[in-house]
Each structure stands twice: as C-alpha cells, then as structure tokens.
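Thread title: Can someone regenerate the structure for this chain?

I was given the following input by a collaborator and told the matching structure tokens would be attached. They weren't. Posting the sequence so someone can regenerate them.
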Amino acid sequence: MTRKQDLSAGAAAPLFWFFTLVFAAMVLSRFDGFAVQIPAQVHVAMLWIGCPLLLLAGAIEGRIDHGERSRGTPLWMTIDSRPVRYTFTLALTYFGLVALAAFDVSLGVVDPRAPAEWPHMQRLLWFLGFSFGMSFANYLAAAGALIPGLRVVTAPFSRLPTALGLGLLMALGLGLSAAAFELLARGAEIRAGVTDAAGRVWQPE
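Best answer:
Regenerated them for you:
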C-alpha cells in the first residue's frame, strides 16, 4: 500500500520531540530505584497510553517525506530526523523493559537490571548504559521491524478523515494496551508453561 507522504520532517519534529520526552520518562520509570517510588496507578497509566501514543507516532511518521534517500537505501539510513529516531528507539526500549520484567527474562551481561546488592548509583549507571546507552542497536531493531510494522498498520487510517482516522487509531491503541495487560497478567503462567515444556524437551521421560 502506497504511503501518503505529505509532511516534512521539520514540520513533524516538535511532535516527535514531545514523544521522545514522554518515552524517555517511561524508560526511566522502569529503573527499580525509581519504579518503587512511582504509584502503581502511574505505571498502569503509562502502559495504557504507550500503545496509542506509539500508533499515533507511527501514523505521523508514515506521512513524512524522508527525501531522495528513502529510495533504495535501508530504512535505518533514510530517517535523518533525530526526534523520529529517538521516539521509536525509546518506545521499543520501554516495551522491551516491561516485557523483561513481566516474564522475568535475563539478558546476562547486557541485562539493564543490575544486581540488587549493588549501590544505587552504580545500578542506575548500569541501567542507563544498557537502556539509553544501547540506543543505536535498539534503533536498528526499531527500523527493522517496529517502524515497517507501524507503517502497515497505520496506513489505512491515514486515508480516512482526520478526526475519524485518529479516533479509530486511538481505539485500536487502547485495545492493544488491554491485550498487553492481559498478556502481562498471565506472565507467571506463561513462564511456568515454557519452563515445563523445556523440561520435557531436555529431560524426556
């Protein structure tokens, strides 16, 4: 499906700087030293707004004309706008951190969650290094899967009248948030099922 590219990166930059600040705050909220001081309702609200905000950013990015460089070059090279890059990088980082915590997945030496016995400042620096510090790797992942996926999902909405398209897009985002909550709530059950399946594979009766 052909994208309707009628926005310049400069015109969209202020919105993407806003998205960047919001997702940066959401990433910082996942540091356990901060997370325990944030009311549970705020964590819930961030996850509720995360999906609609990501879809909105995706819809706007899909209408940006990235210029001649967008023809025949990899997607990660075509996006010159820093706030656009930062937005999707931080969004992917935030949702990744939520998933790591919910499913208790460890990434070993690159896990952003430092050992609990470390001093607070050392743990914070570790978290920053393996969340914000790995922004280029996370951007490559976002450009490889997240942004193309968002372009496909949001393209039909861009062809509707603005108010209707945005309304339906936000409704879809809230639906995705609800699905995410359901998946996260079943995190322990899913982990147990995966562990049990792995045990049967490696230790057959």
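Residues 194-205 have pLDDT under 50 and may be disordered.
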